[in-house]
């Protein structure tokens, strides 16, 4: 029982605190605050400055690759002049048509650099797959918590609508009939009118309760009013099938709807997850085919993979810039999420700050802002029940025709009291606060960790593709051209000594000749 009475807490992780402590500069290179205000142009400038760091890194990568290309192009002519002298010196010491000496060691070094770069890229791809999975898990927990909160809010709305419609039905139907029957008896007429007055009072009190009222509960309430006579206790649908508001546009609805947010996040998360999977598969295909091209010494394959490596390099640095801005913005939000929700007009419209603070903090020292309304409604329902019991004991002997109307009012009152008890339980802060804490943990723990891993993947893959683009031109030089292969094969076939030695070895190898 003690574990159930505790309220779960949230504390920013060490990664959130580290990223939140990063200095912020705007486009004029002036220091700015790190308060999460996404609508502010000054805050957006700080994110743009952080994202531009990846653009600077991309420029440095391009300069490094360009310098290596110039080095290979300029040194190629010198290597051709020195190659003839080295071939004469190394002709007696080398076997076959491979490379040896200084040139061979350089080619071997360049090839191993390319292989090491591809290996680093594969490690980065593994980190990227893990980070993408972590981010997806965090977003799934966030959307699941939002759907559960939307289910609770929809249940509150449906309970309020069901209670109001039931009381309105009792006023317009059986209570009106009882007033007509008790016209000649003043005590019974006064009790009946008191029931009407108290029912109207409960309707006014419940109508003042507002928690992001949606159109779903109103529609259901109207249906129950039309369907007629009896009001049954409400059993709302589970979160997976609970009705949610589907937005007609990309604008945030007012008041804010968790169902709308969950639907929007699920769609965007699907696109984000698929985009990263395609990017990771592209990097993996490029790395594997580069290894295949180096093993098979296929120049056309390496040329094609070089083009894809250029595209992957730009995508890696671009994704790193986007991830950097997202990580920093998310750390600013996760450092103090309550302050953002309390100060934001999008979440405060239609809901008082006291109500938001009650559900966001859920402190035992805070009283429910609906406590007075619920207490007055409970007293009014108890008084209605007292009046109906008095009429049941005293009036039926004199007015037996009023029994049917009295039983209908009692049935509606019993259903109303059952719905009212459910409403009191749902209006308690613990349920919605738990959903709020779970959504923060999914976004600020798993989501933040996944984005950091994706940032590490983008950085390592960018470095790997930079090294690959620098080493591939040198690896091409180690591949023999088609003309060299043809000349080597012709020289070996025209050499009478080589042919004689090969035939002699073949005869000696055959034991039956």
Automatic annotation (TrEMBL):
<dbReference type="GO" id="GO:0030868">
    <property type="term" value="C:smooth endoplasmic reticulum membrane"/>
</dbReference>
<feature type="region of interest" description="Disordered">
    <location>
        <begin position="81"/>
        <end position="102"/>
    </location>
</feature>
<dbReference type="InterPro" id="IPR006990">
    <property type="entry name" value="Tweety"/>
</dbReference>
<keyword id="KW-0868">Chloride</keyword>
<comment type="similarity">
    <text>Belongs to the tweety family.</text>
</comment>
<keyword id="KW-0869">Chloride channel</keyword>
<feature type="transmembrane region" description="Helical">
    <location>
        <begin position="273"/>
        <end position="294"/>
    </location>
</feature>
<keyword id="KW-0812">Transmembrane</keyword>
<feature type="transmembrane region" description="Helical">
    <location>
        <begin position="47"/>
        <end position="70"/>
    </location>
</feature>
<keyword id="KW-1003">Cell membrane</keyword>
<comment type="subunit">
    <text>Homotetramer; disulfide-linked. Homodimer.</text>
</comment>
<feature type="transmembrane region" description="Helical">
    <location>
        <begin position="301"/>
        <end position="320"/>
    </location>
</feature>
<feature type="transmembrane region" description="Helical">
    <location>
        <begin position="107"/>
        <end position="130"/>
    </location>
</feature>
<keyword id="KW-1015">Disulfide bond</keyword>
<comment type="function">
    <text>Probable chloride channel.</text>
</comment>
<feature type="compositionally biased region" description="Acidic residues">
    <location>
        <begin position="482"/>
        <end position="495"/>
    </location>
</feature>
<keyword id="KW-0406">Ion transport</keyword>
<dbReference type="GO" id="GO:0072320">
    <property type="term" value="F:volume-sensitive chloride channel activity"/>
</dbReference>
<protein>
    <recommendedName>
        <fullName>Protein tweety homolog</fullName>
    </recommendedName>
</protein>
<keyword id="KW-0325">Glycoprotein</keyword>
<feature type="transmembrane region" description="Helical">
    <location>
        <begin position="451"/>
        <end position="472"/>
    </location>
</feature>
<keyword id="KW-0472">Membrane</keyword>
<dbReference type="Pfam" id="PF04906">
    <property type="entry name" value="Tweety"/>
</dbReference>
<dbReference type="GO" id="GO:0034707">
    <property type="term" value="C:chloride channel complex"/>
</dbReference>
<feature type="compositionally biased region" description="Acidic residues">
    <location>
        <begin position="84"/>
        <end position="93"/>
    </location>
</feature>
<dbReference type="GO" id="GO:0005229">
    <property type="term" value="F:intracellularly calcium-gated chloride channel activity"/>
</dbReference>
<keyword id="KW-0407">Ion channel</keyword>
<feature type="region of interest" description="Disordered">
    <location>
        <begin position="481"/>
        <end position="513"/>
    </location>
</feature>
<dbReference type="GO" id="GO:0005886">
    <property type="term" value="C:plasma membrane"/>
</dbReference>
<keyword id="KW-1133">Transmembrane helix</keyword>
<keyword id="KW-0813">Transport</keyword>
């Amino acid at each position: 029982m003690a574990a159930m009475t505790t309220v779960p807490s949230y504390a920013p992780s060490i990664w959130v605190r580290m990223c939140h402590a990063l200095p912020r500069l705007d486009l004029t290179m002036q220091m700015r605050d790190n308060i999460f205000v996404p609508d502010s142009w000054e805050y957006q400038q700080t994110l743009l400055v952080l994202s531009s760091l990846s653009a600077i890194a991309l420029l440095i990568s391009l300069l490094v690759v360009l310098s290596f290309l110039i080095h290979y192009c300029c040194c190629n002519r010198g290597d051709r002049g020195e190659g003839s002298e080295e071939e004469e010196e190394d002709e007696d010491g080398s076997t076959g048509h491979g490379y040896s000496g200084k040139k061979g060691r350089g080619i071997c070094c360049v090839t191993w650099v390319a292989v090491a770069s591809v290996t680093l890229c594969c490690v980065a791809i593994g980190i990227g797959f893990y980070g993408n999975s972590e981010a997806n898990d965090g977003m799934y927990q966030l959307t699941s918590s939002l759907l559960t909160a939307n289910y609770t809010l929809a249940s509150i709305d449906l309970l309020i609508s069901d209670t109001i419609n039931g009381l309105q039905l009792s006023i317009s139907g059986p209570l009106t009939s009882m007033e007509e029957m008790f016209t000649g008896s003043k005590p019974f007429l006064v009790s009946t009118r008191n029931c009407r007055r108290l029912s109207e009072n409960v309707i006014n009190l419940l109508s003042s309760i507002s928690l992001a009222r949606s159109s779903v509960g109103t529609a259901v309430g109207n249906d129950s009013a039309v369907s007629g006579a009896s009001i049954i206790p409400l059993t709302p649908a589970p979160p997976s099938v609970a009705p949610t508001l589907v937005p007609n546009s990309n604008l945030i609805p007012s008041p804010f709807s968790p169902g709308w947010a969950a639907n929007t996040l699920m769609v965007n998360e699907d696109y984000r997850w698929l985009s990263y999977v395609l990017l990771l598969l592209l990097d993996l295909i490029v790395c594997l085919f580069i290894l295949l091209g180096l093993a098979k010494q296929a120049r056309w394959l390496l040329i094609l993979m070089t083009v894809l490596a250029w595209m992957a390099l730009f995508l890696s640095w671009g994704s790193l810039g986007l991830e950097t801005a997202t990580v920093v913005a998310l750390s600013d939000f996760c450092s103090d999420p309550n302050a953002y929700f309390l100060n934001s007009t999008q979440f405060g419209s239609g809901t008082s700050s006291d109500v938001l603070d009650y559900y966001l903090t859920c402190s035992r020292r805070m009283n429910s802002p609906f406590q007075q309304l619920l207490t007055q409604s409970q007293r009014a329902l108890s008084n209605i029940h007292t009046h109906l019991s008095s009429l049941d004991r005293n009036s039926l002997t004199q007015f037996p025709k009023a029994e049917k109307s009295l039983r209908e009012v009692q049935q509606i009152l019993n259903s109303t009291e059952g719905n009212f008890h459910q409403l009191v339980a749902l209006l308690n802060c613990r349920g919605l606060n738990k959903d709020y804490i779970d959504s923060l943990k999914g976004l600020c723990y798993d989501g933040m960790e996944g984005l950091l891993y994706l940032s590490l993947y983008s950085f390592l893959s960018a470095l790997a593709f930079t090294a690959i683009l620098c080493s591939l031109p040198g690896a091409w030089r180690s591949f023999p051209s088609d003309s060299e292969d043809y000349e080597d094969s012709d020289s070996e076939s025209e050499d009478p000594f080589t042919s004689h030695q090969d035939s002699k070895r073949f005869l000696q190898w055959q034991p039956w000749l």
